[in-house]
Specification:
By secondary structure, the chain is an alpha/beta fold. It folds into two domains: about 40-285 and about 410-415, P-loop containing nucleotide triphosphate hydrolases (Rossmann fold), CATH 3.40.50.300; about 295-405, no CATH class. It has helices at about 1-30, 50-65, 75-90, 135-140, 145-155, 165-175, 180-195, 220-230, 235-245, 285, 290-300, 305-320, 320-345, 350-360, 365-375, 380-410; strands at about 40-45, 70-75, 105-115, 120-135, 160-165, 200-205, 250-255, 260-265, 270-275, 415. It has an eight-stranded mixed sheet with strand order 2-3-4-1-5-6-7-10, with helices on both faces. Strands 8-9 form a two-stranded antiparallel sheet. A hairpin with a 2-residue loop joins strand 3 and strand 4 (about 120-135). Helix 2 (about 50-65) crosses helix 3 (about 75-90). The chain is globular. InterPro entries: P-loop_NTPase.
């Protein structure tokens, strides 16, 4: 009896230990990607009524399903409710336009870029989207208020900046309306002064692009006309010249409602009773951000650091993502962080951003080689490799969208990429 009891106890211990090991392995697999989920912060600037709210709504509506991109955006439920409310209000011809941000109001959204990771849908990149009213830059701050200081701090720590140029003000300026011209110059002055010291990529978005259809039937020529006008505005050309040598600057036209939904008459933009709500090019404002950040990060690294990154990418092919990350070592990541802090500004690109760059630099293997290598990896490394491949697919698709944009609108690239001898 005692022997039987001892055997039962031993069997029970083996079962418990086996389950414990399985739980540990499962925890390792579900712990997420090595280096964490890369997260970048985007700060958007624009005067009240310039179209920031509709742009944000259009971006989410266009990217909320995978389509043929292989990824989609997800937001927390309370933010989803707000975005859907704005959309319904904007698209309903019986409703007034959605209320924009007011002075001192901050809107912060968290976009998770969702993609297939080993058969499950997981976030592979996160984009924090902060929307500030430009009046904080054009008007004196209220006594005792810290809103202006908070905005300037957010601009200094942003991974990318989006400046909103109101197409309505461009239309007024084109028609000789002095007030429109002054408002346009005031908004540009405010953004220029705030953007000159930063080291992050800059995207200027022209909203309400549909109001400028009359300028030229060809969209690229239309954009050239607007670009030439902006470059003639005091300060704008200087900003582009200063930043073009060190980072990427873009000018992207968008319409958050489409080219047959709104009409300008008697100084007011109204919805057409039979208008068709078809946003255009809105996703480009977000699609360019990650590729531009990665490009600037890569070009900011010195040759020795970049060589180390490439070597680490090669090692990843021979071992596994998790082990390659460990062999990268604290010394290297600290060194790379110091290099990036010097080139881009402290806090702009976290260690997880370095890991995303490492993923994109790695060599591509063919499907057969990948299958063989995956079979040789352990569970944790196999899941980490799924994350690597998912991030590569997302970044590759974003880079493809940037290439399409530049082929369609060559003049949208104001400058960038002329760095050193790379």
């Amino acid at each position: 009896m005692g022997v039987v009891l001892l055997v039962l106890v031993l069997v029970l211990l083996v079962v418990l230990l086996t389950r414990r090991r399985r739980r540990k392995r499962t925890a390792a697999v579900l712990a997420g990607p090595p280096g964490g989920v890369p997260a970048f912060r985007i700060v958007t600037l624009g005067l009240q009524g310039s179209g920031k709210t509709l742009l944000l709504t259009g971006i989410y509506r266009r990217l909320q399903t995978p389509g043929d991109r292989g990824f989609y955006l997800r937001v927390p439920h309370e933010q989803l409710i707000e975005l859907n409310r704005w959309y319904r209000k904007a698209a309903d011809v019986q409703e007034e336009w959605p209320r924009g941000t007011t002075r001192g109001e901050l809107r912060e959204f968290e976009f998770s870029v969702m993609a297939d990771v080993g058969g499950a849908t997981e976030p592979v990149v996160k984009l924090g989207y902060l929307e500030y009213p430009g009046e904080l830059l054009t008007d004196p701050d209220a006594p005792g208020s810290t809103a202006q200081a908070t905005l300037l701090q957010a601009i200094a720590g942003a991974d990318a900046l989006v400046g909103i140029i109101d197409g309505f003000r461009l239309l007024q300026a084109d028609q000789g309306d002095q007030r429109g011209t002054l408002m346009l110059e005031a908004s540009l002055d405010a953004m220029i002064n705030a953007m000159l010291p930063v080291r992050s990529p800059i995207v200027f978005v022209i909203t309400k692009w549909d109001l400028l259809d009359h300028l030229h039937p060809d969209e690229n020529e239309r954009l050239r006309i607007v670009r030439d006008r902006l470059m003639a505005t005091p300060g704008f050309a200087d900003l582009v010249k200063v930043h073009s040598a060190r980072r990427i600057v873009r000018l992207i036209p968008v319409t958050a409602v489409g080219h047959d939904f709104a009409v300008y008459a008697d100084g007011v933009v109204r919805k057409k009773p039979e208008g068709r709500f078809r946003p255009g090019n809105v996703e480009a404002a977000l699609s360019v951000v990650v590729p531009d950040i990665l490009r600037q990060t890569e070009l900011s690294l010195d040759r020795a650091t970049r060589a180390e990154l490439l070597a680490a990418a090669q090692r990843r092919m021979r071992m596994g993502p998790a082990e390659a990350l460990r062999t990268l070592g604290a010394h290297f990541t600290a060194h790379a962080a110091r290099v990036l802090a010097s080139a881009l500004g402290a806090g702009l690109v976290a260690e997880s951003g370095l890991m995303l760059l490492l993923d994109t630099l790695g060599p591509r293997d063919d499907p057969a080689e990948r299958t063989d290598r995956m079979a040789r990896l352990g569970e944790a490394d196999r899941m980490a490799e799924h994350y690597v491949q998912a991030r590569r697919r997302v970044v590759g698709e974003l880079q493809r969208q940037v290439a399409v944009l530049e082929a369609k609108l060559p003049v949208s690239r104001l400058g960038g990429d002329r760095w050193g001898d790379w």
